[in-house]
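Model: You mentioned two targets. I'll fold them one after the other.
Researcher: Yes, keep them separate.
Model: Target one:
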Amino acid sequence: MGMDSDLFCEGLVRRFGSNAAVDHVSLDVPAGTFFSILGPSGCGKTTLLRLLAGFDKPDQGDIHIRGQRMNDVPPNRRPVNMVFQHLALFPTMTVGDNIAYGLKRRKMPLAERRKRIARVLEQVGLPDLEHRNPQELSGGQRQRVALARCLVLEPTLLLLDEPLGALDLKLREQMKVELKHLQKQFGTTFVYITHDQSEAMVMSDQVAVMREGRFDQVAPPEELYREPATPFVAGFVGDNNRLSGELVSVRDNLAELRLDDGVLVQGRVASDNLQAGHRAELYIRPESLVLSGDALSSGFSSMQAKVRTTLFDGANSRVEAETCGQPVYARLPQDGSAPRLSVDSSIRLAWNPSLARVFGAESL
C-alpha cells in the first residue's frame, strides 16, 4: 500500500448469482489525485463505486481509506461523499442551506457554518449566491453547488457517478475543465466513473479501463492512448483503425502482417502471444496515417484504399476510406495540402510502423 494512499483496495469481488460484476479488482489511489474508472455500461464500474461508498459489501477483498479498513464501516461513517448524476439539490432550500445541510447534521455551530459556506462558495466561483434558490441558477451553477455541498464536508474521497451525464454537450465540455480545476484547488481525491472516454482523458491523472468486472489497464491518459495494453483499450480509448491479417514474422519488436488483400504492413509488437501463421490485428490512429504520393519515407508501411467520403469537422476533419472491406479513417492535414479526394478514387495511406500496435487476435 502506498504511503500516501487515500484509497487502497485489494482483490475486490462482488458476485450476483454466478456473475462477478467486480472480479478481483485492486487499486491504489494516491492522495490528491483525480482517478477515473472508464468502461462501457455493464462493465461493473457502478457496482465498484457502491462498494467504495459502502452501499454494498464485497464478497471478497478489502477496502482501505487512509490506511483504515472500511469493509464493515457503514456509508455514513466513511470519510467519503458521493455525487450522483441527478444532483438532487433540495429545491425548497436556498443555496446556502443546501450547502449547510451536511454541516448541520454534524451539529456544527452556526457561526462556523457561515464561515465555511462563504469560503466554499468563493472556492467554486459562486460568491454571494447563498440566498438564491437553486431553480434560479444555470445548470453549471447548480453543478457547482452540488460539488460545494460535498466538498464543504472535507471528505477524504469524493466519489462521482457520471455527474455530467445529464448536461448538454457544451456545458459538459465546460464542466470537464472546471471539475479538473476544482479537484486541483481543493486537493480532494476524486474517484470518477464514466463511459465517456473524453471526460476521463481530459480530467484524470490516472484512468482505469474496466471491462467485464476487471481492469484491463491503469495508466495516465497519454499512456492509455499511446501504449494501449490490450486490443480492448486500443479500440475503446480514442479513435483507432483496426486492420486484420495474418502474422508473417516478428523481428526487432516489429511485427509484419499480411492483410487480407495480400499487402504486407508493419507495426510494433504489443502482445506476447504473436505467432507466425496466426491471425493478428494492427491498430493505427487516424492522425498517424499520412496521405502519401508514391514517394514513401523509408521504413514506412503503406496500403491502397478507396475513398468513401470526407468528414469535415474543423481541426478534426477526416477522410473515410475502405481497404479489404474495412473502413479506415485518416486525419486530413490542416494546411489545406490534402489532395482533392473524390469518392471511389484510390489513395495511398502510409504510416511509421513504430506508431502502430500489433496484438494477437486470439487475445481478444
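Model: Target two:
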Amino acid sequence: MFTSLFIHRYSLWQWLQRWRPGASLPSDVTQRHPVLSWGFGGVVLGTALQLQQSALDGWLFYAVILVVSAILASFVASKVVAFSVWRGFLACLAVVGLTFALCGLRALVFASHAMPPELEGRDIQVLGTVSAMPQRNAGGARFRLQVESATADGQFVSLPPSIYLGWYGETANDPLVPELVAGQVWQLTVRLKAPHGNANPGGFDYELWLWEQGLQATGYVRSGKGKATGQGAQMQQMSWRYPVERVRQQVRDSVYASVSERRTAGVIAALLVGDQAAIERADWDIFRATGVAHLMSISGLHVTLFAWAAAWLLRFGWRQSTRLCMLFPAPLAAAWGGLGLAVAYAVFSGWGVPAQRTVLMLFVAVALRTSGAHWPWRHVWLAAMAVVLLWDPWALLSAGFWLSFVAVGVLFATDLEAKNAYGVSRNKHFRAMFREQAVVTLALTPLGLLLFGQVSLVGLLANLLAIPWVTLVVTPLSMAGVAWGGFWQAAAWGISAMGAVLNWLAAWPMAMIAMPTPPIWLAVAAVLGGALLAKRLPWAWRLLGLPLMLPVLLWQPGRPVDGQVELIAADVGQGTAVLVRTAHHSLLYDAGPRWGPETDAGHRVLLPLLRRLDEKLDTLVLSHRDTDHTGGAMAVLGMQPQATLLSSIEADHALQALRPVQRCEVGQRWHWDGVLFEVIHPQAADYATPAKSNALSCVLRISTSGSTAHTQGQKILLTGDIEAAQEAQLLAHEQGGGADLHADVLLVPHHGSRTSSTDAFVQAVSPRFALVQAGYRNRFGHPAPAVLERYQMQGIDLLDSSHCGAATWRSTEPMRVHCQRVVARRYWHHVPP
C-alpha cells in the first residue's frame, strides 16, 4: 500500500491537479467546515463501538439511537452552537450514533436470514446457481451457491440466500465430482449447518470471514457412490447470471493449461484473477518469511498501477482530439476514466476487500481534486477511511485495513506530504521510494507483531527487489497473457527467478523472527514511536520514539509460577491438542487433525498459538497414530526443532523419519518447575498384543505441588482415545496400589465416545471439569448423549469445544475455566443450540 501511495502521489494526483493549469485552488473546505473532520472520525469510532457488541440489540434500540442522533446532527448543522470545538464534539457524537445505529440495523437485516437450527444435519433438496468461481482441490471442490428454492421432506423451507458448499469425492480427482462452472444451475441434495469455526486466542475468525462474504450456512453435497439420497445431483441449465465469474474461471483454467508448472501457474492466477487459494502453502510460507505476501494478490498496489496506466493512456488518446478536449479537459477525463477502468479491474479480480478499499480511496482522491477542494492530508486520510467503513463496516477488523491505512498515515505524518511529493525531481524518485519503504517497515513492525506474531528481517531488501519485479514485469506479463498465452510462460519464468531469490533470502539466519503478541496499547505506542523516529525532526526529539518502541520488543506474556501449571485445550474441531505450560517449560499433548493435503491444525491453529505465546516446546506427546491426533505434528515439529517426541506410534510411521520417537510406557516420569508429569498407560506388554491404536493411547497425569504451603496441589488427566477396556485396566492398576486416578481436570476419553467414560471410571476420576474436544455436528455424534448424562449425574461441569472454543484452566484459579467463545464473543459468532 505504501508503494501504491508513492505512485499515486507522483502520478494520479499530479495530473489531476493540472486539469486546470494555473488555476488557484479554492479555500480549504475543512477550514470553512471544521466539523467535517470530526464527522469522519465519528464514522470510525461509531463503527468500532458497534463491532464490540457481543450480541445484537432489537430494532427499536437502533431506531431510537438513529432518531436521537439525527436530531443532534440537525442541531449542529443549524449552527446554534457557535464555538467550533463544541460543534465538532457534538458533530462527532451525532455521527457516532448514526454510524452505530446504521451498522447495527445492517447486521440485523443480515442476521434475519440465518440458517434455521432445525434444518441442520437434514437432507435438503436445493435449487441454486453457482455464484462464484469454484475452488478445486485434491479432495473435490468448494463453491458458493445462490439459493433459489429448497425443500425438506417434500415441504418448502427457508434457507439463507447464499451458502458455501463442498463437493467431495472418495479419491483425489474423483470423476463423480463434476467440473463446476459459475452460472450453472444445479439441483442438489445437501446437508447444512450454521457457520461455525474454531475459536482460539489470536486465531483466524472464520465466522467473521463468512459474515463478510455474505455466507450464512456451510455444508456438503450428498451425492456420489454410497452417498446418494433424495434426488441426487443434476445440472438444470446454464444461467446468464454471473458472467464476470465465468470469464474469471475461463482465464484461470487457461493459465493452468498454458503453464505446466502448477506452482507458478497458481501465482499467476492469484495475480490475474485474485485466486489466492491457487498459491501452494509452501510458497505462502516463503512469501511471509520474506515479507512480500502482500504482492501475491490483487492488492492496492496493483489496482492503483492499473488506474495510473489506464489514465495515462486515456489522457494521451484524449489529447489527440481537439473536440473532446473542448468538451472535457483531458486530465479530468483521464482521472475518471482511469478510476472506472480500475473498478472494472477490481471486479474482474474478484472484488476482494483490498481492491474495494483501494477503489474507494481512489474515488475520494479523484472527487476531491476534481472539485478543487484542497484538504490537509489528515482529512483526506480520515475521509477515505470513513468511506471504506460506510461501504464495509466489518473491514475494520481485517489486518489489511490497518496495515494499509497505518502505512499511508505514517508516510503522510513523516513529512512526505503533497508539498514534497508534487515537486520531487526524477533523480530522487528511487531515494524517496527507499526512504518510504524503510519508514513503513519501521513503523509497521509493531503492528505486524500484533497481527501476525512475526517479523521478516529481510523484508526491506526483499520488497525493494520484489516490488518493481512483480509490479513492472510479472503482473504486466500476466495481464498480457489474456491476449496471447505465450506471455504467461514468460511470467512463469519471472516468477521462478524471483522465487529463487526469495528462497535464498528466506534461508538466511534470522530471516524471520517470531515474538509474542503484545497488548494492543503497546503496539499502538510502538507505531507512534516508529513514526516519531522517522519524522524530519532534530535527533533529540526523534530519539524520544525509542522509549515508545522498546516495551513492545521486550514484552513477554505471563507464565505460571513455580509449582503451578496452565492448560489450554485448543479448539481444533474433531481432534485433540492440549498445551501445558509451567514456569519454564511447555508440552503439547497431541497435534490436532489433518483436513487435507494443504491444511492441518498445526499450520492453522497450533503454530499461531505458539507464536502468540512465544512458546518453545520441550516435548510433543502424540497419544496414538490416528490422524485426528497427529495431523498437525509435521508442521509443529518443523517449526519446533528442539522438541522431543514421545508417542505410541509404530516404528514405520512417517514421523519416525522426521524425529526420533521415544515410546511412552507406564513408569515414565519427570519434574518441571515443581510440577510432576507421569505416563500411566500403556504398559510395555500392551505393545506386544494386537489391538486398535486407541488401546495404545498415552495417558498422561500432571500434578502440581502448590506454590505455597496453603495452596493445595491440582491434578490433570489427559487420556487420548482410551476406551472401556483401557479404563478398566487403569482402575485395576489403581486398586492394586497404583496411581490415584482422581483429577481436577479430565480430558474426556475418545472425545466423549459411547465406548468410553464408563460409570466406574467417571466416579474414580471425579473431576471438577471435564473437557471434550470434538467438532461441531461431527459425523461421529461426539459427545454421545449417554456419556453427557453420566457426567451430569456426577455433577461434573462438562465443557465441549463447540460451545466453549479454546478452554484455558490455571491451577492458581482451579474453580474457573476461561472459554474463548465467551470472553471474545461477538454478534456474528455462532451460538450452538
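Researcher: Noted. Anything on target two?
Model: The longest helix spans residues 84-111.
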